[in-house]
UniProtKB/TrEMBL annotation, chains A, B, C, D:
This is Adenosylhomocysteinase. It holds the Pfam family AdoHcyase_NAD. Keywords: Cytoplasm, Hydrolase, NAD, One-carbon metabolism. It comes from Thermomonas fusca. It catalyses: S-adenosyl-L-homocysteine + H2O = L-homocysteine + adenosine.
Amino acid sequence: MNAVARTFSTEGDYKVADISLADWGRKELDIAEHEMPGLMSIRKQYAATTPLKGVRVTGSLHMTIQTAVLIETLKDIGADVRWASCNIFSTQDHAAAAIAATGTPVFAWKGETLEEYWDCTLDALTFTLADGTLTGPELVVDDGGDVTLLIHKGYELEQGDDSWVNSASGSHEEQVIKNLLKRVASERPGYWTRVVKDWKGVSEETTTGVHRLYQLAEKGQLLVPAINVNDSVTKSKFDNLYGCRESLADGLKRALDVMLAGKVAVVCGYGDVGKGSAASLRAYGARVIVTEIDPICALQAAMEGFEVTTVEDTLGRADIYVTTTGNKDIITLAHMQAMKDQAIVCNIGHFDNEIQVDALYASGAVKTNIKPQVDKFTFANGNSIFLLAEGRLVNLGCATGHPSFVMSNSFSNQTLAQIDLWANKDAYEAKVYILPKKLDEEVARLHLEKIGVKLTRLTTEQADYLGVSTDGPYKPEHYRY
Amino acid sequence: MNAVARTFSTEGDYKVADISLADWGRKELDIAEHEMPGLMSIRKQYAATTPLKGVRVTGSLHMTIQTAVLIETLKDIGADVRWASCNIFSTQDHAAAAIAATGTPVFAWKGETLEEYWDCTLDALTFTLADGTLTGPELVVDDGGDVTLLIHKGYELEQGDDSWVNSASGSHEEQVIKNLLKRVASERPGYWTRVVKDWKGVSEETTTGVHRLYQLAEKGQLLVPAINVNDSVTKSKFDNLYGCRESLADGLKRALDVMLAGKVAVVCGYGDVGKGSAASLRAYGARVIVTEIDPICALQAAMEGFEVTTVEDTLGRADIYVTTTGNKDIITLAHMQAMKDQAIVCNIGHFDNEIQVDALYASGAVKTNIKPQVDKFTFANGNSIFLLAEGRLVNLGCATGHPSFVMSNSFSNQTLAQIDLWANKDAYEAKVYILPKKLDEEVARLHLEKIGVKLTRLTTEQADYLGVSTDGPYKPEHYRY
Amino acid sequence: MNAVARTFSTEGDYKVADISLADWGRKELDIAEHEMPGLMSIRKQYAATTPLKGVRVTGSLHMTIQTAVLIETLKDIGADVRWASCNIFSTQDHAAAAIAATGTPVFAWKGETLEEYWDCTLDALTFTLADGTLTGPELVVDDGGDVTLLIHKGYELEQGDDSWVNSASGSHEEQVIKNLLKRVASERPGYWTRVVKDWKGVSEETTTGVHRLYQLAEKGQLLVPAINVNDSVTKSKFDNLYGCRESLADGLKRALDVMLAGKVAVVCGYGDVGKGSAASLRAYGARVIVTEIDPICALQAAMEGFEVTTVEDTLGRADIYVTTTGNKDIITLAHMQAMKDQAIVCNIGHFDNEIQVDALYASGAVKTNIKPQVDKFTFANGNSIFLLAEGRLVNLGCATGHPSFVMSNSFSNQTLAQIDLWANKDAYEAKVYILPKKLDEEVARLHLEKIGVKLTRLTTEQADYLGVSTDGPYKPEHYRY
Amino acid sequence: MNAVARTFSTEGDYKVADISLADWGRKELDIAEHEMPGLMSIRKQYAATTPLKGVRVTGSLHMTIQTAVLIETLKDIGADVRWASCNIFSTQDHAAAAIAATGTPVFAWKGETLEEYWDCTLDALTFTLADGTLTGPELVVDDGGDVTLLIHKGYELEQGDDSWVNSASGSHEEQVIKNLLKRVASERPGYWTRVVKDWKGVSEETTTGVHRLYQLAEKGQLLVPAINVNDSVTKSKFDNLYGCRESLADGLKRALDVMLAGKVAVVCGYGDVGKGSAASLRAYGARVIVTEIDPICALQAAMEGFEVTTVEDTLGRADIYVTTTGNKDIITLAHMQAMKDQAIVCNIGHFDNEIQVDALYASGAVKTNIKPQVDKFTFANGNSIFLLAEGRLVNLGCATGHPSFVMSNSFSNQTLAQIDLWANKDAYEAKVYILPKKLDEEVARLHLEKIGVKLTRLTTEQADYLGVSTDGPYKPEHYRY
C-alpha cells in the first residue's frame, strides 16, 4: 500500500502498468461480453459490412473492462483504434493490459500524473501513416471532451491565435495542457492542421462534454459534426441514473468499508446522477439530504421524501457528502472545515472542481494517506475529513465504475454514433446531433432478452389509434421517460 | 346503496346533485387552499391586474374540490366562468355545490349518464350575452379535449360537412355526441360559427387531449392556439406520476378494502402514470408485473426490478390489473375470462376503452353490483372478476382523485396558460404551444416553501461556468428530469 | 354530512344502525371469505366435530366485515355467539346488519356514545337460559380487554369491594363504567357471580389487553385462563405491522384526501404498529421522523434511515402526527398548540389517551366539524389542527380497518385459541398462555396457497442436521422473526 | 493475481501474512474506532476496574479491522488475549499485522488451508505459563464454535473415548480436525484436561454456534457456562440483518462487478440474514425470489412482495443464488448444472456446505480461477457458473465483512458477555445463558449518540401506566422487535 517506484510495460505501441495482467483482463473481458448484449449484437450485425473499415478512431474514455469490450467492438467493425483514459484514476490495469496484448495501442494506467495523462491523450491521438507522417484520428470517441479540446486548442494556436496558451492558468491542469501544446508546436509544426483536415466527427458521452460542444457550436467554433450520445434516453436515463445507483456505494465501500445505515448523507444535485446516488444511499438506510438550485428538481426530491436544504444547513450533522452537479465549488474549503469529524467527501459528478480540492491542499490541513485514493485531512480544530479519489470520480477512482450491463447501453449508442458519423461524413455539418429515437429504442431492445423481458406488441388497430407505427418510435420527441 | 330516484338542485344557473352540500364543500375548499400554494400565490400576484377580466372561460375538468380552487382562482383574476366535469363519475358533489352556491354556473354530478354528460358540456359552453344571444367561451380549459371536440365538430357541421354526424358510430358515446350536434343544429342555427368567432384559445391537461390537438394541428384543422399543459414538467412528471402514486391505492381501498401485500398486480404501461402506479403497489408489498410495448420504458421497468411480460403470461396468477396506457383494448374480454377468480380490473389511464367494457357487458357474464362503482361479473366457468368505476378512472370514480398539493402544480400551469393565451391572443397562431421553461420552474418554486424546501442559489461564477442565468432557466430544452 | 336524528334497527335480539344494509353486507362478506383462507380452512376442518358446540361465546371486537367472517366461523364450529364492537367508531354498519339478519345477536353501530358503547358490551355479555335466567359467556373473544374488565370489576363489586366504583374517575369513560356496574348491581343482584361460575376463558387480541391480563395474573386476580393471541407471530408481526402498513394511509386519505408526498410525518413509537406506519408514510414520499423511548427500537429506526428525535423537536416543521405507542399523553395539548398550521393528529395505537383529547376539548380551541370523524380545532394563535376519529383508531374510525387477508391470520389464531381454551378448560389454570409455535406455523401455512407461495420441504437429512422435525416447529422459542 | 509463493511474518509470537502492513492496519483501526462507539464506551467505563485483569482469553473470530478493535478493548479491560480467525478467507492481513505489531499473539491470514486453519486455532488456544507449562484459555470468544468443538473433542479423547477420532469422516475438514487431535494427544498428553480445568466460559456469536451449544447442553455434555450472544436483539437483529444488507452486495461487487439491476436473484432462507440480503438486492433493482421451509418466514417474504418458490422452480431464469440458511445442501450439484449460463452462486449463511461444493469439485466441471475467491466452473453442456469464496462467506471472502458500526453492537455484547462470565464464574452452571434485556438496551444506547438519535424519556406517570421503570427494560421477554 506504499508508493511503489513506478515501472511500466511499454514493449510495443502501448504504455500500460503491467502487461502480465493481460490474461486476467481477458478472463474478465469474457465475462463482461455476456453482460453487454448490445455491443455483442452490433458486432454480429455489422460483422460482414464492417462500416468503419480502416477508419482511424481515437478514444478518450475510462480504460475499464467495459471500455475494452467497446474497443474490440469498434475493431470488429473495422476501425483502427488508439486509446487513452479520460481520468487519471479510472484505468483498470488488467483491462489496459488485455487490450495492449492484442496489439491495440493503449496509453493508460491507474494513477497517472496530470503530465502523464495529457501525454497519453496525445499518444492516443497520434497515428502514423505508412510514409511515417504523423496524423490524427478520423473519428473521436470522447468522454468529457479532452481530445476535442486538445485538437481545437492546438488548431487555434496553429491558426496564429496564441492568446490562450500564453494566458495565466486557473489550475495546474490548465498549465499542463498549455505546456503540451507549446511542445507539440515546436516538435510537430503544422500537425494540428493535418489532424483537422482528416477529422470527420466526434461522439461525446457526458453532460459536461456535451455542454462544451453546444458552446463551441453556438460560437461557430466547432470544427466537426458531433453526436450528443449523452442525451440518448438509453444513455442519460440509464448510465447516469442506474449506473450511479450501483457504483457510488461500491466506491464508498471499497474506500472506507463504512456503514451507510444510520448515516446522514448529503447529495448535492438531483439530476440523473443525483437521483441514482440518493436512491442508493437511502436504500442502505442512510438519511439523505439533497441540495438543489433548480426548483423543479428540488420539488422532485421533496416528492421522494428527501429533505432539501443547503450545504450550510447540514454542516455538523452530516457524515457523507457526494457531489453530482457538473458545476464547480459545490463543497468549499469553508464547508469542509465546518464538517463533522470524520466526514467523507467525494464526487461522482464530473470534474474534481466540484470540491475545492486545490484550496484544501493549500489550507494547511494535515494530509494522511490511508491507502490509494483515500486521504484523511486533519484541520487545526482537530477534526478530520476523508477525501476520496482526490475529488475525482469516486466510483472509478475507488471502485471499478459502472457495471457492464448499463455501460453496454451507453457504448451501443457510442458505436452507433460512430457508424452514423462516418456514414454521413459528407452530409453532416459542424453541429451537434442527437441519435434518432428509433436507434434509441433499438439500443434498449438489444438489452431486453438478456434479462428476460417479454415485450408486448401493438396491434395495427392500436397503433392506428395512437397514430404511431407498430415498430416505433412510440413517443413524441419531447417525451421525458 | 340502492339506486335512488335522482333529484337535482337546479334553482339557479347550475345543475348539481344537492346544493345543501355547499357548506361541507366550502370547509373542504378552505382546507384545500392551504394545500394549493401555487394557485393561492397566483391569486395574490394577479389580484390587482386581473388579466382575465371579463373573459368568458369554459372549463371541462373533473369537478372536484381541487378544481373548485382552480375555478375560484380564475374568477379572482377576472374570468367569467362556466364549468362541467370531464368524466361521468369524477364530480365530488359537495365541491360542485360549493361552487354553485357562489353563483358560478356549474353542471356536474357524480354518476351522470352519457346523455347528461354531454348536455352538461353544452351547458358549460353556452354563455348568454346581455342581449340574450347565445354564444361560447373566449377561452377553454380542457381535460381530454371534449369541449374542443364538440366545437370543432359543431363548426364542421355548420360549414356544411355532415359526413361525420351521419356516419356509423363505433360506440354509444359517439352516437350521443352526434345526436347532440344534430339537436343544436336545429335549435341554434349558426351557433358554432358564432362560438368560433370569439374563441381565442384552449389549454389542455392530458396526454390524450394533447395528442388529439397535435393531430388536428398536423391536419391544419385546429381552429385556435392551444397550450399543451400536460408536457410542462411540473404537470406530467408530478400529476401523472406522484398523483397516481397516491390515488390508485386510494381508489382500490375505497372500492374493495383489499389487502395489497402479497398480491400479484399487473400494471399495463410504464409511462408516468404506470411508474406511479407500480411504485405504489410495490410499496404496499404487492408483486408487480409490468407490460410494455416500448423497449425503453420496458428496460426502465426491468431496472427497477419489475418482471416485464405480456398480459397473457399473467392470466391465472395475477390478482389485480391496472391499465395506464392511453391506448385501447389493453384488457380484452378474453383476458378477463381467463383471469384468476376474484381478480380486480381497473383503469387509471384515460378512457374506459383501455378495458373492453362493452364486450364484457355483452358477454353474458352475470353482473352483481356491490356498491356504486364496484361491480362483480361472474363468467360461465364460475369465476368472477371485479370491475371498478365501469372501466373509467378508478381514482376519480372510486376515490376523490389526486390530492390537492399535486393538483396545485397542474392547475397553476393551467392558469398561467390561460393568462398567456389571452395576453397573446393576437400573436399566437392556431398551433400547439408549450409553456416556457421559466414558467415551469416558477410553478415548482411556488410549491417549495409550503413543504419546507430550501433552495441553493447559484453564485454568478457558478452560473457563468454553466452558462446559465442565476435565475434560470437552468436546463436545456431537451432535459428529461 | 350533518348530524342525523338517530334511528336504529332493533326488531330482533340485536341493535344495529340499519338492518336494510344486510344485503350489501352479505355481498362484502362473500368477497371477504375469499380473502380469509385461514378461517375458511378452519371451518372445513372442524365442520364435522364442531368443537364449540353449544358453547356461549361473547365477542368484543370491532364489528367489521372481517369480524363477521370470524363470527360465522365460530358459529360454524358450534358456538352460540353474541357480539359488540370494542370501539365506538369501528363498526361497519352493513357488516353488523348482515350478522343481525342471520339471527346472531349483535349490538354495534358506527358512532356510539360511551354510554351506548358500554350498554352494548353488557348486551353482548348477557345470555338468557331456557328458564329465563340471565347468565354470561363461557368463553370471551376480547380486543382491548373491555369484557374482561367489566366481568372482573362487576365480580369485585359483588364480592363486597366497592372501593373502585365509588372512587373518583380519571376520565368520563371510567365514570360510565362505574355507573353501569352500579345499575347492574341494583337490577341483577348476584349476576356477576353467576357469570364467573361458568366462565372458562378469554382469548385476547391486542398488546394493551394482553398487558392488562399479565398484570391481573401477576397480582393473582385473573379469574380464568387466558390466551395471549397478540403474541402469536402470525398476529403481532402481521396484523400490527402489515395491517397498519395498509390501513393508516387509508384512514388519512378517506379523512382528508391529503397529499402525503413531501410532508413531514412524525410516527410516535417504533414497535410493530409504528414500523408499519412509518414504512407506509415513507413509501408515499413523506419524510418520516420517529420518536422512541426504547433504545433498541430507536436504533432500528435509525438503521432504516429515519430521523429519531422528540416530539418537541418536530413542532413547527411536521405536518402529520401518528401515535402508535399503547402509552398515554404522547401528544399533549401543549404539543398541539405549538404545531404548524393545519397539522393532522391521529392515533393508530390503542386508546384515545395517546393524544390529550380531553385537554384539547377543554382548551377553548374552536372546534369545527368537517365531516364525521374529522374535526378542526382552531387555537387562539390562529393556527388550526385536524383531529381524526376523536383520537381513537384512525384506521377504523376513518376507514374500514385492516384488510381481510391479514385479519384472517389474527382471527385464525383467535379461533384456534377458543378451541384450545374449551378443550383444556379443565386443565388450564388462571394464567396467561401463548399458542404453541406449531399452531402459529399452521396459521401461516393456511394463508400461503391463496397468494401462490410454494414452500420448500426439508429433507430428513437436513432436518436431522438442524435437529428439528421435517414438519416443524422450525425455530427455537426465543426466535424473533 | 497469480498464486504467489507464500511467505509469512513470524518474528514474534504470531503468524501473519506480512507484518509490514501494520501501519496501514493501524490507520484503519483509528478510523474504525470512531465507528465503534459501543466498544470505545466500554473501554472508558472499565478502564479503572479492568474486570478481566490477567484473564487468559482465546478468540476465534474473523480477524478483521473490527475484530482488532474488539481485541484491543479486551486488552484494555485487562485480558491476556490470543487470537485466530474462524474462517480461512476472512482475515484482513493488515488488521492481523496491526495486532501482531502490538505484541498480541495472532495467528491468521487470508487464504489459509484447512490444515493451517486448525493449527492456527490450536496456536490461539495455547497459552504458556511462567513455568513453561502449556495451558489454555480461561474464557473463549467463539464464532461458529470451533474452539469449543476442539476443546470438547480433545477432552473426550483424553477421557478415553476415541470413537469419534477414529470414525470415518464426512468431509475433508473433519479429518483435518481428527488428525490434529491425534497429534496433540501424542505431543501434549493430558493437555485438554488441563485446559478444561481452568476454562470458565465461552461467549458465542452465531446462530450455528449457539445451536451447537444448546445441543451440547441438552445432552449434558457442555463443559462450561456459555453466553448466547447471537440472540441479543442488538446482535441478531442488527449484525445479521443490517450487516448483511450492507456486505452482501459489497462481496458481489468486489468479486464480479456485476450489474444487479434487472437480474433475477434467489435468496435461500428468509431469516435475519435472508431478510437483509433480499432487501439489499431488491434495492439495487434486482428481482428477488425467496425460498423457505418455514411457513411463517415464507408469509413474511410474501407480505414484502417477494415471489416465494423452490430453487427448482428458478433454474434457468435466475442469475444469482445466495444461501442464508445455516442448513446444508441448499444448492445442490444438480441445481448448479441446471442453472442459466453465467449464474453466480454464493453463501452468506454459515458453512460452505450450504452449497454442494465438494460435489461440484468432483463433478468434472472445468474450473477457471478468475481472481482470488472467484472461480468459474464450466459444465459439459457448455454453461458456466461462478462460485464465490469457494462457498464460504462471500462478504468476508470477497469483501471485508460487515462494517464497523454494526459490529460494534455485536462486539459490545461479546465484551459484556466476557465480563459477565468472569464475574459469575462461580455462580453460573454449565448452561447456555442470554444477556439480560437491560444490557441489550444498554448496547443500543451506546450507539445512538454517534448517529444523532435523540431518545424520548418516559415520565413517571407514563412508566407507571405501562408498568415499567423509566430506565427500562421496556419490553416483556417475549417481545420480538
